Amino acid sequence: MASLQTPSSLLSLLLIQFLLLLINQHHLTHAATDAAAAPGPTPAPLNLTGILVKGSQYSTFLRLLKETQVGEQIIKELDDTVEGFTILAPTDNAFSNLKTGTLNKLSMQDQSGLVLYHVLPKYYSFVTFETTSNPVRTQASGNNGVYTVNVTSARNQVNVSTGVVDTSITNALYSEFPLAVYSLDKVLLPYDLFGPKSAVSKPRGTPDNSTSTAAGPSSEADSSSSSAVVFTARNLVWGSLVGFAVLMGLVI
Ligand SMILES: *[C@@H]1O[C@H](CO)[C@@H](O)[C@H](O)[C@H]1NC(C)=O
Ligand SMILES: *[C@@H]1O[C@H](CO)[C@@H](O)[C@H](O)[C@H]1NC(C)=O
Ligand SMILES: *[C@@H]1O[C@H](CO)[C@@H](O)[C@H](O)[C@H]1NC(C)=O
Ligand SMILES: *[C@@H]1O[C@H](CO)[C@@H](O)[C@H](O)[C@H]1NC(C)=O
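^ thats the input. predicted complex w/ 2-acetamido-2-deoxy-beta-D-glucopyranose below
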């Protein structure tokens, strides 16, 4: 009897171990999928380029993000953002529907402004879009309320208006705090760059019209820095005049 029982108990032991192994594995795979689905601190780093590449119709926007270095900037800031970011990514079709030369006519600074205009410094889901109040700041907005968009939203339909372009946010390529990436069928042309008044309000410091079509987001910083240069140059002239006078005084 004993000799018969031993193999059977051995068998059941093996069976129990096998079952335990199965249960363990089941738990492990579950834990893995749970971790991937959980919000909060996800292990995989956010890859904006990857999200857009996967969308496969954003090569122009990807190129602009790279050329203007806005993409890098966002990636860097995503690490310690409190508000998050929302990126409105126009499709290649949207860019090819622009009037020819629209992009090329822009200075590098205005191109950056245009790209930053498509970045909202806050994470918006379809639901939070509904509770936002207009105008909505973009990453290109200065302190003076320029470069903003208006958003109207109801029942999962979100419309965006720049005052020059009206379009709607269609599908989300990615939406999990801190990053939302939405697809746009039109390029958002900022009113401050393409509106009828932009030609009138242009001479914000520069009297001649050989410079860029409109004042970009950081033109104020530019003009103040150039006046700082003038100031120091004047100081230099005064300094050398005074120095010269002192020298003459010493000689005489
Ligand atoms: C992001 O995705 C792109 C395209 O899929 C890939 O080439 C790149 O190596 C990825 N970057 C990181 C940091 O994972
Ligand atoms: C969005 O725009 C479309 C077309 O112009 C319009 O029919 C719709 O009512 C708008 N939706 C909202 C929420 O404003
Ligand atoms: C945007 O919304 C603000 C506040 O509601 C309004 O004053 C402004 O005229 C709107 N601009 C456009 C272009 O719709
Ligand atoms: C500005 O441009 C217009 C047409 O492009 C030209 O006729 C005018 O002479 C220019 N003015 C100055 C100050 O350069």
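The pocket of 2-acetamido-2-deoxy-beta-D-glucopyranose (ligand 2) is lined by residues 152-154, 157, 159, 168 (CB under 6 Å).
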